[in-house]
Specification:
By secondary structure, the chain is an alpha+beta fold. The chain has helices spanning 10-36, 41-48, 50-67, 70-94, 117-127, 142-149, 231-254, 272-279, 285-289; strands at 104-110, 131-137, 155-158, 167-172, 176-181, 193-199, 202-210, 258-264, 283-284, 307-312, 315-321, 332-337. Helix 1 packs across helix 3 (50-67), helix 1 (10-36) crosses helix 4 and helix 7 (231-254) packs parallel to helix 8 (272-279).
C-alpha cells in the first residue's frame, strides 16, 4: 500500500484557513470599492482604509509561496497586487537618485478650525514654506491668524465660505497677481479661488481645496453641518469638484502657468477624486517622490492619506509630513523645482 500522506498539524491548517478567508474577504472588499466607488458608506470607508486591510496580503504572499500553499496564494493574489500598486512607488522612490535642487516649497494644512494653530506655527517655523494652502480657516479667526503670521506671509487670500468656520486660504511670500473665484462647482461644494502668484517673474496658479466632507449614516437634519448631503451625494460632489479642479488646472497650464492644487480631498488613493485629478495630468507629489505611506488623517500614524499636493508644470523634488499640533490632520510639505529650460 502507498504511504499515507502526512497530515499538517491542526494549528497550520487553522492558519491556512484564516489566510484563505482573509484573501477571499479582501478580494470581495476590493471588488466592492472598484464597482461601487464612493457611492455608499461601506465602499467609501473601505477605500479610505484600504492601506490597512490590504497590507497583510504583502506578508501572506511570500509565506504562502514558501509553504507551497497554492490555495492560499490564489486567495491573496488580488489584494497583494492592489497593495503593491499602492505601496510600490514608495519602495521605488527610496532607491531613486536625489531630485533637482528645489526652487519652491509649498505646504498644505487643514488646521481643524484653529485647533491646529500650534502645528501651523511649527510648520512655519521649522519648514518655512513659500506658499501655504490652508483649510478650515474660521472667519472669526482670520484677524488672529493675520496678526500672528502676517509678517511672514504678507500676501494672503481667503475664499468666501458659506459654511461657518470652514474656509480655505492661500498665504504667500510672493505677490498675488489675481484672485479668481472658481465657478462651475457642484451644489454643496465649498468655495475656492484660483490665486495667481508672481514667483520671481513666473506665474503660479494655486488652488487650496477642501472637497465635500462625508456625512456617514447621517440623517436629513444633519445636512446643515454637511451641505453636500448624505454619503452618496457627498461622493458625487467630491467627484464633481475633482473634475472641475482638474479642468481648471488644464486651462491654466495651457495658458502657460504652473499649477498647484493642494488640500484636503476627504479621499484616499482608492477613492475616486484622487484618481480623477491624477487622470487629468496633475502629478501627485507624494506618490512621485515620497518614501512612506504618509497617512495624514488622524494621529500619527493616521488612517488615510487625504491631504495632498498636486502639480502641473513643476517637478517634484521631496515631500514629508509635519506635526499636526492640535489638528486632526498632518501638514504636507512639498519641495518643487521649475522644469529645466530646453537647451
Amino acid at each position: 500500500m502507498p504511504p499515507t500522506p502526512e497530515r499538517r498539524p491542526a494549528w497550520r491548517r487553522t492558519l491556512h484557513a484564516l489566510a484563505v478567508a482573509y484573501g477571499i474577504c479582501a478580494t470581495l472588499a476590493l471588488a466592492v470599492v472598484l464597482v461601487f466607488s464612493d457611492g455608499n458608506a461601506v465602499s467609501y470607508v473601505l477605500g479610505l482604509f484600504a492601506a490597512w486591510w490590504l497590507a497583510p496580503s504583502l506578508v501572506l504572499v511570500p509565506l504562502a509561496a514558501a509553504a507551497g500553499s497554492r490555495r492560499t496564494l490564489a486567495a491573496v493574489t488580488a489584494p497583494a497586487v492592489a497593495a503593491g500598486a499602492l505601496a510600490g512607488p514608495y519602495v521605488v522612490n527610496r532607491f531613486s537618485p536625489a531630485g533637482a535642487t528645489p526652487d519652491l516649497r509649498v505646504a498644505t494644512f487643514n488646521t481643524s478650525a484653529w485647533h491646529g494653530v500650534d502645528g501651523l506655527a511649527a510648520l512655519v517655523r521649522d519648514q518655512d514654506p513659500d506658499v501655504l494652502a490652508l483649510q478650515e480657516i474660521a472667519r472669526s479667526s482670520r484677524a488672529a491668524y493675520d496678526e500672528r503670521f502676517g509678517g511672514r506671509y504678507p500676501y494672503r487670500s481667503y475664499a468666501k465660505s458659506s459654511i461657518q468656520g470652514d474656509g480655505v486660504a492661500v498665504w504667500s511670500k510672493h505677490p498675488i497677481v489675481s484672485v479668481d473665484p472658481v465657478t462651475g462647482l457642484p451644489e454643496g461644494a465649498r468655495a475656492a479661488d484660483v490665486v495667481t502668484l508672481d514667483v520671481e517673474g513666473r506665474r503660479l496658479a494655486v488652488v487650496s481645496v477642501h472637497l465635500a466632507s462625508p456625512c456617514l449614516f447621517c440623517s436629513a437634519s444633519a445636512e446643515k453641518y454637511s451641505p453636500a448631503g448624505d454619503t452618496a451625494n457627498a461622493a458625487r460632489v467630491r467627484v464633481g469638484e475633482a473634475h472641475r479642479f482638474a479642468d481648471l488646472a488644464s486651462e491654466r497650464r495651457a495658458a502657460g502657468e504652473a499649477v498647484v492644487v493642494a488640500g484636503d480631498l476627504n479621499s484616499a488613493e482608492l477613492n475616486e477624486p484622487l484618481r480623477e485629478l491624477r487622470s487629468h495630468g496633475l502629478v501627485d507629489v507624494h506618490r512621485a517622490v515620497g518614501t512612506r505611506p504618509g497617512l495624514t488623517r488622524g494621529r500619527s500614524p493616521g488612517f488615510a492619506r487625504v491631504d495632498v499636493v498636486l502639480v502641473s508644470g513643476l517637478d517634484p523634488v521631496a515631500t514629508r509630513e509635519g506635526a499636526p499640533g492640535g489638528s486632526t490632520h498632518s501638514p504636507v510639505i512639498a519641495d518643487l523645482a521649475w522644469p529645466s529650460e530646453p537647451s
